[in-house]
Write a structure and sequence with these properties.
It is a single chain. The protein contains two helices and 54 strands. Strands 1, 4, 5, 48, 51, 52 and 54 form a seven-stranded antiparallel sheet that branches. The termini are close together. The relative contact order is 0.13. The chain is an all-beta fold. Among the domains are: about 1-50 and about 530-635, Sandwich (Jelly Rolls), CATH 2.60.120; about 160-235, Thrombin, subunit H, CATH 2.40.10; about 470-520, no CATH class. Strand 4 and strand 5 (about 45-50) form a beta hairpin.
């Protein structure tokens, strides 16, 4: 029988997939964990209890959050819900209930891009819109209106959906005319108001007689009433679908995909973003191209960096040109991962790389330059934590802490700590009572839309709050009655009063009643932080063996500024700090201690399946774990 010691100095590989329990040969096994839940992983290796979520407002329903940064000092949060827009600044509503054209079922597929004081919105069921900040508390929503040329033609992208040989005949050149075509083209429900071009002019459909005949109002006089094959209609419209995506690139507005043209991309004139007329192909004129491959690659997202990155259902493309003009533009597929087609998950720029979610939602990939020839490659950031990255529906990045947040369809968050140069790629899980619906990082704050028992709430991650959906308050003089918890009415909340943990209470009529007066109170929904290592890999006389019997003798935990440490070594979680640092002083907040605390254990177990210790913390108190030393006996 031998005695073995192991020093666990960091968790920089994050929580690993249970499928890796047999991969002791991986470097990640040494620095990983079997469970890292509701903790914040530090790049130096330790973990702390995560930030709580402070309640800001009750929302009219579920929807989507979008960050809006107007300047280095003006940050706004746009809350999109059913037929409504609300604008917040620093967590405070500054303009609410703005009438909006989107419906609840559309919100998961809304695409946006910001330019100065305007946010451009795209959705396949809506004409593109713009949300304009006219002042801090003055916001409006308008249709995007395309430019017109001197003849009165609308400079919207055009396309001929009929066969090339199809012919159109106008009955005249001005006023209200009849146009006929030898191929079924018109739809009575969707073609009203759609512009058609022929014979140097333009008409708009006023009424549809049949699939091959319509009445039209001439907008720009036709040169002739002759039959022609050179005709087209608006490529994006109620009849053919609106753009799936929208972006800006090199002073051009870029529209990507539509129901009938899912793999097409249109780029406006330079510095004339509502003009999509291709003209004669001059360098500053509009660009139109199709992403050609063996299958139709529907455009699902775009991101402007040095080049235009286009994310489609079947792969990732790079749009280049030096300079980018109608003659020099090149579209090359780089990789073949594919992006989600059932919803829009925005690709994110993270330290020079682009992170995006795969087509099935179960992979977060990194799109980066591979070599000096400027080709791109993708790497799977979720390979070792596949169980964490499941059905990602929203994605954002907090640069100050180098944290990537992936909202899952089940309402939990898969959170990635990434320091590429330091080779830290670590996933942890954030769980709350309820479901996170959407998330946005703006102005250094992480805002969340959360569906809870009593409705949909807007909340923000707050370092000084150790509970979720929490409210904080102060009173002078101290009082026993605390109100303002209407959003948690009927639910059990945890309470921190003057730094002391009080027994949980059920909120009644938005109030809680303390057993003694307090001057400062935090109340909210509790959550449990959990840390557990991977199963040990003991070495007996025959070498490493999963069949070896082991016994934990002692585990020593090095903590920093920690007020509560509860460890389970087989008989349930037990407080550990009191044994090393003495009992807590009665009626005083628990002290935050820094040092080493040990726990001893009994009982033999088979190695290779279960961790030998587990930290479980439910109290809203500080916790930071730096390292763990274990002493074990191994049966030879």
């Amino acid at each position: 029988m031998t005695r073995q010691y192991k020093l666990h100095t960091n968790f920089t590989a994050g929580e690993l997939d249970p499928m890796l329990l047999g991969r002791a040969d991986l470097r990640a096994y040494e620095n990983g964990a079997s469970t890292l839940r509701n903790v914040l992983l530090h790049p130096t290796g330790g973990v702390s209890r995560r930030r709580g979520m402070q309640f800001l407002a009750e929302l009219p329903g579920e929807g989507r959050l979008i960050g809006f940064e107007f300047s280095t000092a003006q940050f706004y949060l746009l809350v999109l819900t059913h037929e409504r827009l609300d604008v917040y600044q620093d967590g405070t509503l500054i303009q609410g209930n703005i009438s909006a054209p989107w419906r609840e079922h559309m919100l998961h597929d809304i695409v946006w891009v910001q330019s100065a004081d305007t946010l451009f919105i795209a959705h396949p069921e809506l004409r593109p819109r713009k949300i304009t900040r006219q002042g801090p508390g003055d916001w409006r929503i308008d249709d995007i209106r395309f430019a017109f040329d001197t003849k009165g033609r609308e400079l919207i992208p055009h396309h001929k959906f009929a066969p090339p040989e199809s012919e159109m005949t106008p009955s005249g050149t001005s006023g209200t005319i009849t146009i006929t075509v030898d191929h079924p083209t018109f739809d009575a429900d969707t073609h009203i108001g759609v512009p058609f071009r022929l014979n140097g002019g333009e008409v708009k459909i006023a009424s549809v007689t049949g699939a091959t005949e319509a009445e039209a109002a001439v907008q720009a006089e036709l040169d002739t009433a002759n039959t022609t094959r050179d005709w087209s209609e608006a490529a994006i419209s109620p009849a053919r679908g609106w753009p799936n995506t929208i972006a800006f690139h090199q002073s051009r507005l870029v529209l990507g995909g539509a129901a009938r043209l899912p793999n097409h991309v249109w780029m406006s004139h330079i510095n004339d973003i509502f003009n999509f007329d291709p003209g004669t192909g001059l360098d500053d004129e509009a660009i139109h191209f199709e992403l050609l491959s063996g299958e139709v690659n529907a455009v699902r997202g775009m991101l402007s960096r040095g080049e235009l990155q286009v994310f489609t259902s079947g792969g990732e493309w790079l749009i280049t040109g030096e300079p980018l003009t109608p003659k020099t533009v090149q579209a090359r597929r780089q990789t073949r991962i594919g992006s989600r087609t059932d919803r829009y998950v925005p690709p994110r720029d993270v330290d020079g790389a682009t992170l995006f979610v795969s087509r099935n939602g179960n992979k977060v990939s990194e799109f980066t330059v591979a070599d000096v020839e400027h080709s791109f490659t993708t790497s799977d950031l979720s390979l070792l934590a596949r169980h964490q990255v499941d059905d990602i529906i929203d994605l954002d990045y907090e640069p100050d802490r180098r944290l990537v947040y992936g909202v899952r369809a089940d309402g939990t968050i898969a959170r990635l700590t990434q320091y590429r140069a330091e080779q830290v790629t670590a996933w942890t899980a954030q769980v709350t009572q309820g479901q996170v619906i959407s998330l946005a990082v703006v102005g250094g704050f992480v805002y969340l839309m959360v569906a809870r028992e009593n409705g949909a709430f807007l909340e923000v991650l707050e370092p000084e709050v150790a509970l979720d959906s929490a409210m904080t308050g102060t009173a002078d003089p101290a009082t026993t009655t605390w109100s303002g918890l209407d959003h948690l009415d009927g639910q059990q909340v945890q309470i921190l009063a003057d730094g002391r943990v009080k027994p949980p209470q059920t909120v009644s009529n938005g109030e809680i009643e303390l057993d003694e007066p307090a001057a400062a109170v935090t109340a909210g929904l509790g959550f449990t932080h959990e840390v557990a290592p991977l199963p040990p890999l003991p070495e007996n006389a025959m070498g490493l063996s999963y069949a070896t019997r082991t016994r934990l003798v002692q585990a020593t935990f090095r903590v920093q500024e920690t007020a509560d440490l509860r460890v389970d070594v087989g008989d349930g979680p037990e407080p550990v700090l009191d044994r090393e640092f003495g009992e807590q002083v009665l009626d005083a907040p628990p002290p935050s201690v820094t040092g080493d605390a040990s726990v001893r254990a009994l009982g033999w177990r088979s190695a290779g399946r279960e961790p030998v210790w587990r930290i479980l913390g439910t109290r809203p108190l500080p916790f930071t774990l730096l390292a763990v030393t274990t002493e074990m006996k191994v049966n030879d």
